[in-house]
Amino acid sequence: MNHFTLQLQGLFPILSITDISLSVFENTHAKMQVSGVIQNPSLDLLQESYNRRVVSLIDTETDDMIFCGIVDSSKIKFENSFATFKVVAISGSYLLDIEKNLVHFRM
Which of 8, 52, 93, 101 is deepest in the core (most CB within 10 A)? Predict the structure, then answer.
């Protein structure tokens, strides 16, 4: 696996991934940070909110899913005719910790 065969799905069209970091520690949620270049950028990208969207990191060579999670934060930066991005995503189990559920038990 190398960064040339990785593809980020669920957001905008990506030209290339320039940096990626995955961290998994005991008793915490897995976290992914991805940076890269956006394909055919437009200013409409700045109007979108990408938080809480589902994203997947796929190895296109083997079709394996490397990571699947929820976008925690995203940043898009325009420079000349290029746009770069940085996305931080947390594993989907994160939603179970932040949503309050009320459960009743009867005896």
Answer: 8
Q: How many CB atoms are closer than 10 A to CB 11?
A: 20
Residue 36, classified by CB atoms within 10 Å of its CB into exposed (0-12), middle (13-18) or buried (19+), is: buried
- Tokens 């940096």 correspond to 19
C-alpha to C-alpha distances, 24 to 16, 32, 33, 35, 49, nearest whole angstrom: 24, 9, 12, 18, 26
21 to each of 25, 34, 89, 107, how far by Cα in Å? 13, 7, 11, 48
**CA dist 54 to 11, 45, 84, 90, Å?**
8, 17, 20, 10
pLDDT at 95: 63
User: Using CA atoms in the order 36, 39, 44, 46, what is the torsion angle rounded to 10 degrees?
Assistant: 10
d(CA 30, CA 22): 7
Its pTM stands at 0.76
